[in-house]
Amino acid sequence: MWLPCRCTSKTIVTSYARRVFKSYFCVFGRWKCDVAALMPEAVGFEGVKDCSSLQEFSVSNSASFWAAAARHRLSWIKPFHTVQDCDLSLGRIKWFEGGQLNVSVNCLDRHVDTCPERVALIWERDEPGSEIKAAPGDDMSPRKPVETAWREKGDCVTIYMPPCPLAVASMLACARIGAAHNVSSTVITVNQGVRAGKVTELKRTVDAAVKDCPSVQQVLVAMRTENPVTMTAKDMDMEEEMLKEDVVCEPEAMDSEDVLFLLYTSGSTGKPKGVVHTQAGYLLYAALTHRYVFSYQDGDVFGCVADIGWITGHSYSVYGPLANGGTTVLFESTPIYPDPGRYWEMVQRLKINQFYGAPTAIRLLLKYGDQWVQKYDRSTLKTLGSVGEPINTEAWEWYHRVVGDGRCPVVDTWWQTETGGICITPRPSDPEIVPGMAMRPFFGIKPVLMDTEGKVVTSNPASGALCLAQPWPGMARTIHNNHERFIETYCQPHPGYFFTGDGAYRSKEGYYQITGRLDDVINVSGHRIGTAEIEDVVNQCSAVAESAVIGYSHDIKGQGVYTFVVLKKDADDQEADLSQQLNNMVSKNIAKYACPDFIQFVQRLPKTRSGKIMRRVLRKVVERDLDGLGDLSTLDDPAAVQEIIQGHRKLC
Ligand code: WTA
């Protein structure tokens, strides 16, 4: 090796090491001491030397932190004058007021100008090897439909489509013209969906829904398959309509706090909530978390396999990666189609650098064995992410050891539809990642645990109700048409804090682990469902007097659905037929994943004297923890429990 003679070998070694170290760890996001490399806009923040002091700064100087990030990361039409105007106790949350921007410009135009050849979307279609890549200049890219789509600001559009470029195009088209996507006068759908080789009749579902929705004036239908569908008077061929439009569509200047989209999600009552996200804060938070949680570098291929209809797909298949000028994969298939090697064959073929999926799929795949993973080259992978539900240690270890060959950090990311983006997560740069723990708050996030008396727990280790102590730009602003419910659900349980509905444990080192919901919401294969929603549907059956749904621990799905049903007096002899009928009803009204795994018909449910169903008792019976049944003295009729125990033994 050639060495310049004036240097001592020590300087050579250290400077060379520094260069290698810096370039290597910059690529992998592990260079912790160089703030400029980590986050250019943080240079000059007082006292910030490294990642952990940056974290402290982002919480204690939240306005300066977010203002710098917003200026650096987003392109504004008009700069904001007020960074934040928030009062969590009143449910008032406003960020970047006075500012105007357009989300589609941030996700598309500004990157088209700098990098027109870059592939923005990779549509990984159901059949492996049939992917379609879309660069911003291509016909398949969102640009064309965006520029040719609809032009009424304030219009509302429901998008009911599988993951595909036209779905992304539709989302960005809405953003371009200032239409919130979800509640609607317009619906956009496809004729049929294709998943795991099976066709689903999406258009038929829309037809049935539109019959009950007089507000819907038009339905745009794109063709995913070649099979024609019956078109009604309201239906229009989407691609034909796009061709009729002018190709230039000026972006609407949107206020920071204008609505970007609504997503319906479950709460503890029977009625799903329309969670509202707005323009600037949401986009900034999605972009920043995408960049830092996964150590996303320019040129990387980001593979989030969530459905784009879920918040995970919104933030990490669409808005986050596109705002960062990245390449994102839209995954149309399932983890085991055509075989359990699908994800890893895709990783090899598309050279995916960050893979983001749900624990339920990991648990399923680990049962098929390591050979399905090892068959494929996964050397491009740098970060592995997990989302939607707790990941058990066995699944975490397997993901890390087998999928990531022990070399890729696994980030267990905790967040919710309401938080807009990831809030608690390890970062690849962290010195230590503990399996199954969400670990540390993201920039600007301050978690606290509340005890049963509503006081903040300060000691470690501790458990309690997880709240977030200060607002952040990505948080939901309200519930559509019901701000009261927003305040009641998130702001009132612990005034001054955002209540998440989850319980958490904090270790003596201060690391967080999410322990699960504190309310009657269950999580089946990563899908969040209110037990009351399922009960609502079951109770609609004319033979049913009442029902109670609980979640129970399930090997693969995380939680399964267990339903207790009390029939009306004259309906007792129809049990077998009824199970099928109830399953069909739940599948049709909610989704297949919400269908009960078990239906136990009982004479009565255990209730308190005031008539409240004692779910705690039902849970213990199903968990077979009869010693843990606890105090039954408040039960109206203790015999009900014995009956239920016997019925449960027969069924399972
Ligand atoms: C649960 C999904 C444990 C949690 C992004 C939360 C998790 C609900 C994790 C939100 C995780 C999500 N560990 N639990 N890493 N991520 N959850 O709105 O109970 O569909 O409240 O958003 O999922 O589900 P949602």
From TrEMBL:
InterPro entries: Ac_CoA_lig, ACAS_N, AMP-bd_C, AMP-bd_C_sf, AMP-binding_CS, AMP-dep_synth/lig_dom, ANL_N_sf
Enzyme class: ligase
Matching PROSITE patterns: AMP_BINDING
Single GO biological process annotation from the record: lipid metabolic process
Entries under SUPFAM superfamilies matching the protein: Acetyl-CoA synthetase-like
Domain AMP-binding enzyme C-terminal positions: 533-612
Molecular function, one GO term: acetate-CoA ligase activity
Reaction(s) this enzyme catalyzes, per UniProt: propanoate + ATP + CoA = propanoyl-CoA + AMP + diphosphate; acetate + ATP + CoA = acetyl-CoA + AMP + diphosphate
Keywords associated with the record: ATP-binding, Ligase, Lipid metabolism, Nucleotide-binding
The organism's place on the tree of life at top rank: Eukaryota
Keyword Metal-binding: no
GO cellular component, one term: mitochondrion
Entry keyword annotation includes Ligase: yes
Enzyme Commission number: 6.2.1.1
Residue span(s) of domain Acetyl-coenzyme A synthetase N-terminal: 54-107
Domain AMP-dependent synthetase/ligase, first and last residues per copy: 152-472
Protein family per UniProt: Belongs to the ATP-dependent AMP-binding enzyme family.
PANTHER family (alphabetical): ACETYL-COENZYME A SYNTHETASE
Name of the protein in its database record: Acetyl-coenzyme A synthetase
Organism the protein comes from: Dissostichus mawsoni
